[in-house]
């Protein structure tokens, strides 16, 4: 029954011939290095978000300086073209000088802010650069904390988010300030106030236009609906004026929605017609909050979902096996925990393309270094664990799952490829 | 991934930003100088008409055209600003949520509970408490236990073994059941402390009282007691290993493991295991999705991941047998079977090879053995 190594060697050759699809990936350092590189590629958001912030500041500052400079130039032009007295000219010029002084100060401040943001972008590139195979455990720990902060920010748990990032020194790697900006808008929307959301749209006009966003239109529609809801002669008048000014420009691209909403003038907020009743539902404000979050994430290059959910889904699937749901599942498996099981239930199972055996006794992998041995009753354990048991018990082996007793010499090696 | 090209692209942005800044500064400086100059001429009661002076300034401004200069500087900066995100998109995975199932919604309460539990088991009690308060979740049931664990570990850091020993003694039966040598580890450390700090007599007394009970682990106890021969000079003895801080680290590790285990928790945080597994899975999934972009791939409703992901050995919690011939995973209906030569196939494959039992033997696909079907037997991994 014993197989000599030569035969087994031949067998391996046969196997690779018959099954060329198998590409075993031995855990050599080079594969771990490429695995690391692959995992760093997941960090787009980490680099993109601070850059979008930086770019926004640069653009805003630049627009402001350009405006100031051109206004100074045109003021001088006006002065020269008009026939002012000398005194007036002197006083105008003096005020221009102090205006330029102010501009210099602003320039200084703006540049400081820009430099800070550039530093943050750099810190993140350096953080990616710092990851290597040796410190990967620590790096992954930091990554988990970053992912948790991202989750908390998206859920508006600001206090814990700041505490966690400060106590673990990752403030440069998370985007608390950016989310604070979003929170202002979200809070206002929750109080049924669109002003700050509209201001946000104005600030990011060009980018929103580029992505064909209709968020501003939706805000305007909601304001219109609120005027109709007020149900007074004055408010109807206002609603019509409002629609002429703010809704009409969207007519070219969003005529159907425009008609749908304007028709509420005829139906009023008390309507029972479902098609219009729905527009007056308070829930519409939550829809706006949701839409804002989406626009916000898109603008900054973030994923729509919290990173935590994306990583959890992938990780749970990769760990999900039918065994994880069994009664006596080892506690080391995250899926032995009820909470993880619940999350994993709707997700796909992992796929295995070759056998991986783990010794029931020692929980160590059974491979060529520690090959599996079969008891006469068909139960399989690792050589190391069985040897240890035999040494302690005078050569006897007791199967821990069935209580079956046999001698070490009764064992047979199994070849699992 | 080429981090260097990302760095270069960013350096370009930062450089252009500096350039644009100094250009703006220069222009503002120049404007204010010119106006200053004009003002001083005006105020010196010069013989020139103030209108002609103003006209000069205006002419000069039109010639220099500061607004155009600003625009030119911005244009250059803009090129760099547009390029950088493109480099990022090329080097990194732009949207990792492509591998996300949108039709699966996680229950926020469960996720929050998992996070709170994570903070407590990492010993971050302040943050855990803050999180629980902010989310309004109910108090975490494991908080108290982890608090106790960290008190024990904290004491061990200060070389105080008392709380650890108390815990190990009161759970000694359970520890024996899982064959943990935690108590011996702790007793050894205690013994070494006594031998180092006090006299040998006391150490011997301690050994008689507490170490003699570990007769099963003869080699360890022998070494311990023998180390007394080199009293206070262990560095040069064969037992210098006893001075290594690794002994303490191991004891701490074993205590954490056993403590978590008795709590019904894994020794490593399940959240960090899952996220690490996710970090290794996402690249594989994303690559697959990219390759399969043209084929209609219903990721949303798959029963099983479309690709295998090689997780590290320590994340392999269960035996998985995949039949090397049919490539199918074994199950209760299709269990693994060992042939007389020791090679293992699954039952369905063996049935197929023997033409459903119509042949009484067949050749093993891996070796020249002629396999007798009646001698194939089921394995339990």
TrEMBL record, chain A:
Its main location: cytoplasm. Keywords: Cytoplasm, Metal-binding, Zinc, Zinc-finger. Residues 1-32 are annotated as: Disordered. It comes from Eutrema salsugineum (Saltwater cress). The keyword Chloroplast does not apply. The keyword Metal-binding applies. One of its GO terms (biological process) is proteasome-mediated ubiquitin-dependent protein catabolic process. GO terms for molecular function: ubiquitin protein ligase activity; zinc ion binding. This is LisH domain-containing protein. It comes from the Eukaryota. It is found in: Cytoplasm. A zinc finger (RING-Gid-type) spans 329-402. Residues 178-235 form the CTLH domain. Signal peptide: none annotated. Residues 329-402 form the RING-Gid-type domain. GO terms for cellular component: cytoplasm; GID complex; nucleus.
UniProtKB/TrEMBL annotation, chain B:
It is found in: Cytoplasm. InterPro entries: CRA_dom (IPR013144), CTLH/CRA (IPR024964), CTLH_C (IPR006595), Fyv10_fam (IPR045098), LisH (IPR006594), Rmd5_dRing (IPR037683), ZF_RING_GID (IPR044063), Znf-RING_euk (IPR027370). One of its GO terms (biological process) is proteasome-mediated ubiquitin-dependent protein catabolic process. The lineage of its organism: Eukaryota, Viridiplantae, Streptophyta, Embryophyta, Tracheophyta. A zinc finger (RING-Gid-type) spans 323-367. This is RING-Gid-type domain-containing protein. Gene3D superfamilies: Zinc/RING finger domain, C3HC4 (zinc finger). GO terms for molecular function: ubiquitin protein ligase activity; zinc ion binding. Its main location: cytoplasm. Residues 323-367 form the RING-Gid-type domain. The keyword Metal-binding applies. Residues 145-202 form the CTLH domain. Keywords: Cytoplasm, Metal-binding, Zinc, Zinc-finger. Residues 323-367 form the RING-type domain. GO terms for cellular component: cytoplasm; GID complex; nucleus. The keyword Ribonucleoprotein does not apply.
């Amino acid at each position: 029954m014993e197989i000599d190594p030569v035969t087994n060697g031949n067998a391996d050759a046969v196997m690779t011939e018959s099954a060329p699809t198998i590409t075993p990936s031995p855990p050599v350092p080079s594969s771990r290095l490429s695995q690391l590189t692959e995992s760093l590629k997941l960090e787009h958001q980490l680099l993109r978000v601070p850059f979008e912030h930086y770019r926004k500041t640069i653009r805003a500052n630049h627009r402001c300086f350009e405006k100031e400079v051109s206004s100074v130039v045109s003021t001088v032009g006006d002065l020269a073209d008009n026939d002012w007295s000398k005194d007036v000219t002197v006083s105008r010029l003096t005020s221009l000088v102090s205006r330029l002084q102010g501009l210099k100060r602003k320039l200084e401040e703006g540049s400081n802010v820009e430099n800070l943001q550039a530093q943050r972008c750099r810190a993140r590139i350096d953080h990616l650069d710092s990851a290597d195979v040796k410190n990967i455990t620590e790096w992954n720990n930091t990554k988990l904390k970053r992912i948790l902060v991202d989750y908390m920010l998206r859920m508006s748990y600001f206090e814990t988010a700041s505490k966690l990032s400060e106590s673990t020194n990752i403030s440069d790697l998370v985007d608390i300030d950016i989310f604070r900006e979003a929170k202002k808008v979200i809070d206002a929307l929750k109080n049924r106030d669109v002003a700050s959301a509209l201001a946000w749209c104005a600030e990011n006009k060009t980018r929103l236009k580029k992505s064909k966003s209709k968020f501003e239109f939706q805000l305007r529609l909601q304001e219109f609906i609120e005027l109709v809801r007020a149900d007074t002669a004055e408010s109807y008048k206002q609603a019509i004026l409002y629609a002429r000014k703010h809704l009409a420009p969207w007519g070219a691209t969003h005529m159907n929605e425009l008609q749908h909403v304007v028709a509420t003038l005829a139906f009023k907020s008390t309507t029972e017609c479902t098609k219009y009743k729905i527009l007056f539902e308070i829930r519409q404000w939550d829809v706006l909050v949701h839409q804002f979050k989406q626009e916000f994430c898109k603008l900054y290059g973030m994923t729509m979902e919290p990173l935590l959910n994306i990583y959890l889904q992938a990780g749970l699937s990769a760990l999900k096996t039918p065994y994880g749901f069994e009664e006596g599942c080892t506690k080391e498996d995250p899926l032995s925990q009820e909470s993880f099981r619940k999350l994993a239930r709707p997700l796909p199972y992992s796929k295995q393309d070759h056998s991986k055996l783990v010794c029931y006794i020692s929980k160590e992998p059974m491979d060529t270094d520690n090959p599996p041995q079969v008891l006469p009753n068909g139960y399989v354990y690792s050589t190391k664990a069985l040897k240890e048991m035999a040494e302690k018990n005078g050569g006897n082996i007791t199967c821990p799952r069935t209580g079956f007793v046999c001698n070490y010499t009764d064992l047979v090696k199994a070849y699992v490829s | 991934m080429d981090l260097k090209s990302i760095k270069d692209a960013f350096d370009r942005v930062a450089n252009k930003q500096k350039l644009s800044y100094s250009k703006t500064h220069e222009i503002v400086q120049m404007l204010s100088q010119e106006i200053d100059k004009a003002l001083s001429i005006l105020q010196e009661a010069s013989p020139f008409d103030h209108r002609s002076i103003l006209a000069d300034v205006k002419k000069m401004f039109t010639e220099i055209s500061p607004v155009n200069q600003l625009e030119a500087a911005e244009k250059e900066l803009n090129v760099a600003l547009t390029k950088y995100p493109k480099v990022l998109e090329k080097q990194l995975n732009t949207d990792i949520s492509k591998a996300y199932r949108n039709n699966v919604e996680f229950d926020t309460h469960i996720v929050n509970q998992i996070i709170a539990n994570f903070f407590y088991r990492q010993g971050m009690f302040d943050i855990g408490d803050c999180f629980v308060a902010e989310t309004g979740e109910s108090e975490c049931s494991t908080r108290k236990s982890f608090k106790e664990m960290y008190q024990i570990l904290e004491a061990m850091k200060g070389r105080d073994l008392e709380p650890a020993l108390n815990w190990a003694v009161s759970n000694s039966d359970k520890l024996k059941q899982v064959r943990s040598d935690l108590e011996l580890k702790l007793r050894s450390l205690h013994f070494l402390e006594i031998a180092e700090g006090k006299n040998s007599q006391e150490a011997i007394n301690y050994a008689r009282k507490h170490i003699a009970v570990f007769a099963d682990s003869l080699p360890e106890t022998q070494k311990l007691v023998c180390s007394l021969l080199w009293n206070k000079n262990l560095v040069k003895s064969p037992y210098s290993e006893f001075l290594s801080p690794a002994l303490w680290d191991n004891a701490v590790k074993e205590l954490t493991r056993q403590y978590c285990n008795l709590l019904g928790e894994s020794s490593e945080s399940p959240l960090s295991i899952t996220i690490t597994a996710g970090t290794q899975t996402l690249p594989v999934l994303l690559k697959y999705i990219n390759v399969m972009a043209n084929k209609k791939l219903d990721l949303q409703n798959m029963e099983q991941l479309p690709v295998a992901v090689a997780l590290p050995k320590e994340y392999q919690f269960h035996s998985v047998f995949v039949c090397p011939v049919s490539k199918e995973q074994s199950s209760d209906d299709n269990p693994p079977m060992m042939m007389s030569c020791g090679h293992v196939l699954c039952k369905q494959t063996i049935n197929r090879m023997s033409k459903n039992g119509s042949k009484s033997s067949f050749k093993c696909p891996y070796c020249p053995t002629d396999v007798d079907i009646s001698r194939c037997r089921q394995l339990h991994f």
